[in-house]
Fold this protein.
Amino acid sequence: MKKLFAVLMALVMVLSFAACGNESSAEGGSVYWLNFKPESDEVLKELAAKYTEETGVEVKIETAASGTYNETLTAEMDKSEAPTIFVVGNQAAVDTWGDYCLDLSDTAIADELNTDAYMLYDADGKLCSIGYCYECYGIIVNNALLNKAGHDVSEITNFETLKAVVEDITARSEELGFGAFTSNAMDGSSSWRYTGHMINLEYYYEYAENPEAWANGTACAPELTGAYMDNFKALYDLAVTNSIVDRKELANGGFDAQAEFAEEKAAFYVQGSWEAGGLEGKGMDLSKLSMIPYYCGVEGEEKAGLNCGTENYWAINGNASEADIQATIDFMVWLVTDAEASEAAVGTFGVMPYKSAAVSTNPFLAQANAYLGDGCYNMAWITNFQPNVDAYRATAVSAMNDYNADPSDANWEKVVTAFVDGWAVQYAAANG
Amino acid sequence: MKRKHDSAAVNSDMIRKPIQRWAPFFLWPMVAAFLIGFVWPFFHGLFLSFCKFQTTSNWEWVGINNYAKALQDQSFVYSFGFTAIFAVVSLVLINVFAFAVAYALTQKIKGANLFRTVFFMPNLIGGIVLGYIWSMIFDGFLAYYEKSILTDTGWGFWGLIILTCWQQIGYMMIIYIAGLQAVPEDMLEAAKIDGASGWQTLFKVTIPNVMPSITICTFLSLTNGFKLFDQNLALTGGLPYTINPDGTAVHTTEMLALNIYNTFYGQSSTSRGVAQAKAVLFFILVATLAIAQLTATRKKEVQQ
């Protein structure tokens, strides 16, 4: 009896181990999407359930915690049930994950795209990933507050006029009851607004001047000239010196810029189109908000538009089984063509650049298009080329912390070194 | 006289047989867990340190290249130095304070049990949480002087020391208390009768008798010092960096474990093998130090 018991226990143990690694998928293939955007998790899970209900194909959505996508992807890719859809959003990710990407050229999903602006290729010209939504960033302006101060957003057409309005608001902030810029914290939850977004003005103008160095926007330049660092400095200084939070407190962070803006403590907010939902949720009337480009004193910037681009690129796992790949493509096509599904997806993603996808309702993206309609140039996301992006940005944050603690010329030199020379260092490290 | 068979003795058949029969049942799950959770990952990791890889199942053999790159990496050398200084300073401070607190709390003072509990409590909080709590405390204090722990290497270093001491003193204290309570009363009494002063008793009688506790405490605080990771990540994250004119940066408060982590994730996949090589070097270093330190202090232990 005891022996039987022991044998049984041993069997249970062995079987429970075996069960861990042996969840076989359905014969028709299944979909596993490792999602990059935490704010979209809920909507995607609902869509996945709906798709399973309609077609019987299993769709699994997992979302990596904010800022840990690379770590999560590294772990998940090792499993036998690896993600079939994952996000390869910039050149650094292509370098790391290119081997895993299915060549998307001529797939049914790539054929649905309505533009070729959002495609990432590896060094051999393989189409590794395609954009599934795009976004825009710039400076969000609360026009109602500007009116209160006797100004209007239409006054602002370049750096000079922006500076005049901002400095006037700062000078009268006590009387007005609000300041110019929200906090510009440099902790991990917010520093990317500067090291990942605002710095794009420097990269973009360098790129516009010499697109060959970037293979016309398809490859990373090995080094920067730093020619427009002074323009970055002009706008950055304007934002931090006219902020409702002192620049010396920015390193530690702990501020909630979105709340400051929603509570109308400040009229300007360095952010992007994805904030629309959050601001609306905090009770803001989006019709009184506008987004203006990064005006920074570059000649001809009256014709600047917003920074449109994306880090949201779909890649399909080329190591997955034929059936899984087919199921994945079918699911993606459904997502961008089915009226109801694409409406829900567009609701969380903003704009999806696909022929039959629902039309976006995001006011900032509508504005980005209006700028383009007026003949303004789009400031493309050259940021996506940042080599070894995490290490590169961390160095810049450290230099900017020193500069904020003591805004001397010597400390600004360090910021320039971090951004410009740091680029070459990380480029060599990533490609060496 | 022939001994009678005692059925309650440990070596009797009555007890030995069931133990023999059931031993595998209790033993094998542990062995399996050890093999799966330690031995296999260890050797797999060792193997990967000679490879270029993106995920652990997708590798390409590159030989000792990774080790060469790891040793040439200035940031690794720097963080080794920083970690060594940190480990020594925290070792001394933790043990001196832990011993002092333990000594005080074994004297008959009121509320000793309450104090023991309070001193031990920080050890129950996770490192990441502690790191963020202390970063708020330090920043609240430093903000008054318009400074930040993230902009000054010295503040960062002492911040880490304070945090580590605060967390570990209570734990070491418990071990010292156990040691102090085991010092034979008669020895202390003999010392008293022979006219030894308080200091003489401490150094000639008490400390030699608590040597086993000192061995284990120095061992723990030394290896803890070298292995420190979560506190480092949460409190300073390696900031501030020194930016060299050529664009490279030294992370001035980055310790070894964080350096390995940043090499693995902060850079492209070409550096994952290098990070793995660093981790192997790191293991060899900590193991060597720990064994050397154990042998050295063991020699000083006395038999009671």
User: Anything to note?
Assistant: The mean pLDDT of chain A is 89. Chain A touches chain B through 46 residues (CB under 8 Å). The two ends of chain A are 65 Å apart (CA to CA).
